[in-house]
Design a protein that fits this description.
Layout: E1 4-5, E2 21-22, E3 28-30, H1 39-47, E4 51-52, H2 54-73, H3 78-82, H4 105-118, H5 125-142, H6 144-155, H7 163-181, H8 185-197, H9 203-211, H10 218-237, H11 243-250, H12 265-281, H13 292-300, H14 305-318, E5 326-329, E6 334-339, E7 348-353, E8 366-367, E9 375-379, H15 390-398
Antiparallel strand pairs: 1-4, 2-3, 5-6, 5-9, 6-7, 7-8
Helix pairs in contact: 4-5, 4-7, 5-6, 6-7, 7-8, 7-12, 7-14, 8-11, 8-12, 10-11, 12-13, 12-14
Protein name: HD-GYP domain-containing protein
């Protein structure tokens, strides 16, 4: 076995070690739970090139990173943090290695839907959720416009189910908004995890409600009212220990609750706003979806303080006409938004249907700042009866001059 050197200088004399310590040749030097007893003992460990297994090393590193995050969050000064020893406790979750996922957003949707549907009965869900979160971050960093395009297109496809699409789109919008607001990277990760799992307590029912022809029953209304707490409890029972994620999940419908953690005030507002924004744009049997700009106005209009700041940041990051949504152009063409523009109300679009309702054969990106291709009004998904190729739209985008 290949062993990994441990940070001997960061080990505190007298504190029990949370892992077995080995020499680089495989000789057991200290068993888990035993301490370094003196400085001379520390020097002896140096002489034997004290090491650990790769799994223990990674888990210990994650425990250390979490400790540092918690100290920063609690206002501990940087010099004190720099002197902090390695933690003497490793949580089970620190050994969770994210399941690598290949493919794109539809693959993430499939895996996430399975976890959300299983809820408290999910097998080893933390590993898979970590894999999903890491892939979300990777895809967003690679091309945020493509991410929004594919997720908004998925939101308009009722056959795909709603719960996991809602979670992924809410996560993407929350992350982009949080970055715009300058929220801390570690808090953004908690926000991502919360967005993905906020409805795990009612995922199956969330899909049923999206297809239901009648208003929610009394039992369903009770579930809707209690699902945030149920979701947080489910996640804790599954082994999730991040208090920020649990706080965001528990209070995502009550971001100003006095019972919630004060440090997450802005992040809760981001999640609550993104959650409502996506919900208003989703189709229901009992109502038509709102176009993005109408959904935004219904949430942001007349707000003040944190709500107004979050609304402005969200409108800037998604645009008034987000990628993947449909618009009517001044020349009568129906177009799909392909890419956000320099202004929130002037995106790049690809005409997909002409004024005679005939499909457009060649996909070409058009600038809605040009009067020829000026944008007239948004259209909801139900009014557009044509299939759009996401790959062809992205190829059209690739032909645009680089900024």
């Amino acid at each position: 076995m290949k062993y990994v050197p441990i940070p001997i200088a960061m080990l505190e004399v007298g504190r029990p070690l949370p892992i077995d310590i080995w020499s680089d040749t495989g000789q057991l030097l200290l068993k888990k739970g035993q301490p370094i007893v003196s400085e001379q003992h520390r020097h002896k460990l140096h002489a034997f090139n004290a090491s650990s297994t790769p799994g223990d090393a990674m888990a210990w590193q994650r425990a250390y990173e979490r400790m540092v995050h918690e100290m920063l969050r609690d206002g501990v000064d940087v010099q004190t943090i720099a002197k902090a020893p390695m933690p003497s406790r490793i949580r089970e979750v620190d050994y969770v290695v994210g399941t690598p996922l290949s493919g794109g957003w539809p693959d993430l949707q499939d895996v996430l839907r399975g976890i959300l549907y299983q809820g408290g009965l999910a097998i080893n869900p933390l590993s898979r959720l970590d894999g999903i979160a890491r892939t979300v971050l990777k895809l967003l960093a690679a091309d945020a416009d493509d991410a929004l395009f594919r997720l908004f297109q998925m939101l308009g496809d009722n056959s795909l189910g709603y719960c996991s699409t809602h979670a992924l789109l809410t996560a993407a919008i929350s992350l982009l908004t949080a970055e715009k607001l300058g929220l801390d990277a570690s808090l953004r990760r908690s926000l991502l995890d919360a967005a993905l799992t906020q409805n795990i307590g009612m995922a199956r029912d969330q899909d049923s409600l999206s297809r239901q022809n009648s208003a929610p029953t009394e039992w369903q209304r009770k579930l809707i009212a209690e699902h945030a707490s149920l979701s947080a409890d489910t996640l804790r029972n599954l082994g999730l220990e991040d208090e920020d994620t649990l706080d965001l999940v528990r209070w995502h419908h009550h971001p100003q609750s006095t019972e919630a953690l004060p440090r997450n005030r802005m992040a809760r507002r981001v999640l609550a706003t993104a959650d409502a924004f996506v919900a208003k744009m989703a189709a229901r049997k009992t109502r038509s979806p709102l176009p993005p700009i109408a959904a935004a106005k219904s949430i942001f209009a007349g707000t003040e303080g944190d709500a107004a700041n979050v609304g402005a940041a969200m409108a800037t990051t998604t645009g008034f006409y987000p990628p993947g949504t449909f618009v009517l152009l001044a020349n009568g063409d129906t177009a799909v938004v392909a890419q956000r523009g320099t202004r929130a109300n002037a995106p790049w679009v690809v005409p997909v249907m002409d004024k005679n309702s005939m499909p457009v054969v060649q996909y070409i990106c058009r600038d809605t700042n040009d009067p020829t291709w000026a944008l007239v009004t948004p259209l909801n998904f139900q009014s557009v009866k044509i299939a759009v190729s996401a790959d062809r739209v992205q190829r059209a985008r690739s032909r645009l001059p680089k900024a």
